[in-house]
């Protein structure tokens, strides 16, 4: 049951039993992410004070080195999840390889792995534009109690048990799914509490916004070029509006609320696009599908791709159902 004004803490407890594998472990995990998100949020909000407090690379008054925010976010999430001993492994966009976590309590044998993009779109921080954290949670496939292996991380997106993002925007929101719809929680900064503000989020079936880095237009495949021209054509409810923040979480969040499509295609210069399958595309695809949207890499569903490596990149198209299907019609003409 979703009640408006419920806190995220209350919501997690109340909905724990509806989760099919419920043992409380996943709830603890979401709670840990909630905690780390608040700490990162606090730091992101101070970013504008950089001239006063010192830039990354400087030393602060306590003699501590100032960190870049993406490094800070990476450490915060990893430390929070590691110290609480609620996961057996973590993979991060900021790390070359995965991290195996051995629990000190032998009776407590964790079964989840987390994949995370701690601060996506971090180049936007310097100019006061929204950034986000993206996370994805799987059950391990190797035996509980043994060190995790690469196989625990290289699972297709359709095996995710939960995924979500935090958007550090005009307000900070945590949006997540455990496979039973998508719910959004807004942080009240005065109290440090997330409240359920967007219950059961849904992509409108149709939309009027397209989001793509059009500066790369000349390098796109013909199907994508034709779809962009279709969006711009004066006919029916078109031309559509072009909106591109360059911060996946923010572009996705807006499109889910207003109706739209996000595209990061492959091109003649980036053979597989830019976005990472495991840290960015799969979690966003899970949220999109749970919100009645679609996420594809072309003809194929993103969540059915068998990952081959941790930092694999794939083309990514995601958003309102009718818009993604229309795009696919154009792609199918050529490829
Ligand atoms: P990052 O993980 O290095 O931050 O890159 C991912 C970001 C996305 O948030 C965003 O949608 C995309 O890169 C923008 O890329 P571009 O500047 O090429 O349009
Ligand atoms: Mg990223």
Note the topology:
Blueprint: H1 8-15, H2 25-45, H3 50-53, H4 69-83, E1 89-92, E2 99-100, E3 112-120, E4 131-139, H5 150-153, E5 160-168, E6 172-177, E7 182-188, E8 193-198, E9 209-211, H6 222-232, E10 241-242, H7 248-258, E11 260-264, H8 277-290, E12 294-296, E13 316-319, H9 321-334
Parallel strand pairs: 1-3, 9-10, 9-11
Antiparallel strand pairs: 1-2, 3-4, 4-5, 5-6, 6-7, 7-8, 11-13, 12-13
Helix pairs in contact: 1-2, 2-4, 6-9
Description:
With 335 residues, the protein is an alpha+beta fold. It is built from nine helices and 13 strands. The protein has helices at 8-15, 25-45, 50-53, 69-83, 150-153, 222-232, 248-258, 277-290, 321-334; strands at residues 89-92, 99-100, 112-120, 131-139, 160-168, 172-177, 182-188, 193-198, 209-211, 241-242, 260-264, 294-296, 316-319. The protein has an eight-stranded mixed sheet with strand order 2-1-3-4-5-6-7-8, sandwiched between helices. A five-stranded mixed sheet has the order 10-9-11-13-12, sandwiched between helices. Helix 1 packs antiparallel against helix 2, helix 2 (25-45) packs antiparallel against helix 4 (69-83) and helix 6 (222-232) crosses helix 9 (321-334). It starts with 7 loop residues before the first helix and ends with a helix. The structure holds 2,5-anhydro-1,6-di-O-phosphono-D-mannitol and magnesium ion. The site of magnesium ion (MG) has 4 residues, from strand 3.
């Amino acid at each position: 049951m979703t009640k408006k004004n419920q806190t995220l803490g209350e919501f997690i407890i109340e909905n724990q039993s509806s989760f099919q594998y419920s043992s409380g472990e996943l709830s603890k995990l979401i709670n840990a992410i909630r905690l780390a998100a608040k700490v990162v949020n606090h730091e992101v909000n101070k970013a504008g004070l950089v001239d006063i407090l010192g830039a990354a690379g400087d030393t602060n008054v306590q003699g501590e080195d100032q960190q870049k925010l993406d490094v800070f976010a990476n450490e915060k999430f990893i430390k929070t999840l590691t110290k609480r001993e609620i996961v057996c492994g973590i993979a991060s966009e900021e790390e070359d390889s995965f991290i195996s976590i051995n629990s000190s309590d032998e009776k407590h044998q964790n079964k989840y792995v987390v994949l995370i993009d701690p601060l996506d779109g971090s180049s936007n921080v310097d100019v006061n534009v929204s950034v986000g954290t993206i996370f994805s949670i799987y059950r391990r496939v190797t035996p509980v109690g043994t060190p995790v292996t690469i196989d625990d991380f290289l699972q297709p997106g359709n095996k995710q048990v939960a995924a979500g993002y935090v958007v550090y925007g005009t307000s900070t929101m945590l949006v997540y799914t455990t496979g039973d719809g998508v719910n959004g929680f807004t942080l009240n900064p005065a109290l440090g509490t997330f409240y359920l503000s967007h219950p059961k989020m849904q992509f409108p079936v149709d939309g009027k916004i397209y989001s793509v880095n059009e500066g790369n237009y000349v390098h796109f495949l013909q199907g994508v070029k034709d779809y962009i021209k279709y969006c711009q054509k004066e006919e029916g409810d078109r031309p559509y509006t072009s909106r591109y923040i360059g911060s996946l979480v923010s572009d996705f969040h807006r499109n889910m609320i207003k109706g739209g499509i996000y595209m990061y295609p492959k091109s003649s210069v980036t053979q597989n696009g830019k976005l990472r399958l495991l840290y960015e595309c799969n979690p966003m695809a899970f949220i999109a599908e749970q919100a009645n949207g679609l996420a594809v890499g072309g003809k194929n569903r993103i969540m059915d791709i068998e990952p081959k490596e941790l930092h694999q990149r794939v083309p990514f198209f995601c958003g309102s159902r009718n818009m993604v299907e229309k795009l696919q019609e154009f792609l199918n003409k050529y490829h």
